[in-house]
Amino acid sequence: MRRRDFIKAIAGSALVCPHLAQAQQKERMRRIVALMPFTATDTQAQARNAAFLQGLQQLGWTVGRNIQIDYRWSEGNVDNTRKYASELVALAPDLIFAAGSAAAGPLLQVTQSVPVVFAAVGDPVGSGFVNSLSRPGGNATGFMTYEYSIGSKWLEVLRQLITDLRRVAVIRDPYIVAGIGQWGAIQSVAPSFGVELNPISVSDAAEMERAIAAFAGVPNGGMIVTGSARAVIYRDLIIALAARHKLPAIYYERYFVAAGGLISYGPDFIDQFRQAAGYVDRILKGEKPADLPVQVPTKYELVINLKTAKAIGLTMPPSVLSRADEVIE
User: Fold this and answer.
1) Is residue 14 part of a domain?
2) Same domain? 225 vs 249
3) Distance, CA of 272 to CA of 275 (rounded, Å)
4) Is 19 within a domain?
């Protein structure tokens, strides 16, 4: 190589090296931790997590290349959730992902500094997770499932299914703010529908089974299953009990209907997990949770399972069928 070419090569490498160093810095490994209040083998939980990972991938974040994700699956156990929340914060992550109120609450009790992105949270303001939907103000933001007023819609649909409806069992988790809030909203409109409410806790499977059996022993009854991590964990049991006692039930999410439930009205939960990746991306790139408004669903879907309706001897009213976004046959 001639001396002039050698000098040019050295000069060129001096210009390239800073860019290489900058690229390597951009690709540094970021650490995310995720608290999931489900069992690790739960198919619905895996579908939600897959959507989250897909969203990250689409935004340029790949596990093993520029992000590391540490999971904890608490299986609906309150004590485990609290323990895992402390464990995850102790890992000093760049960001925490929380699936639902059951995970977000314990995490935000442990840290007020690490950014938290949540999905499928019922009432982030009432739960104290954020100051307001438009201006969260703290270290958390994310995606809300629905307003509590949706409880009146659940009751309205159930009343249309059962013209002589007199009694409604409300399956809820009384240990989370969202469970209390959903119950309160349904309770406030029940008199206008002329129905008596019977709250049933989803915290204990055996007790829930006994309570539903006792409730179903009296005619003119229906059931509302409100949103919670425990409802997801016990969904097969809840669906089976509704079928066994031929109890018309409305659920807060499509997945229950796809698994054999009668009817659901609610948002797309899996899409929320996919969208949550967008907030993770923005925060990892420098934005603050305090400045990112909590997102509220803009679309709710009515899904009906006609096979289940036939099995419990229910004729689906045409007025309800005509409004369905999806009919499973």
Assistant:
1) no
2) yes
3) 5
4) no
Neighbours of 3 (CB within 10 A): 7
Name the pairing type of β-strands 221-225 and 167-172.
Answer: parallel
- Spatial separation of the C-alpha atoms in residues 89 and 98, rounded to whole Å: 12
Is residue 204 within 8 Å of 167, Cβ to Cβ? no
The answer to the question of residue 258 being in a domain is: yes
Bridge partners, 303 (sequence order)? 264, 326
d(CA 237, CA 214): 16
Are 221 and 281 found together in one domain?
A: no
The residue whose two tokens read 């529908």 is: 193
**118, two tokens:** 């949540």
Largest CA distance in the chain: 98
CATH code of the domain in which 232 resides: 3.40.50.2300
Per-residue pLDDT of the chain (329 residues; tens, 9 = 90+): 454 554 454 445 445 445 544 544 456 899 999 999 999 999 989 999 999 999 999 999 999 999 999 999 999 898 999 999 999 999 999 999 999 998 999 999 999 999 999 999 988 998 899 999 999 999 999 999 988 889 999 999 999 999 999 999 999 999 888 888 899 999 999 999 999 999 999 989 999 999 999 999 999 999 999 998 899 899 999 999 999 999 999 999 999 999 999 999 999 999 999 999 999 999 999 999 999 999 999 889 999 999 999 999 999 999 999 999 999 99
* Total domains, the chain: 2
Strand, helix or coil for residue 249: strand
Does residue 2 form part of some domain? no
Rounded-to-integer distance, Cα 263 and Cα 250, Å? 5
| pTM listed for this prediction | 0.81
Q: Which residues contact 198 (CB under 8 A, 6 or more apart)?
A: 167, 168, 169, 170, 211, 215
187 shares a domain with 274: no
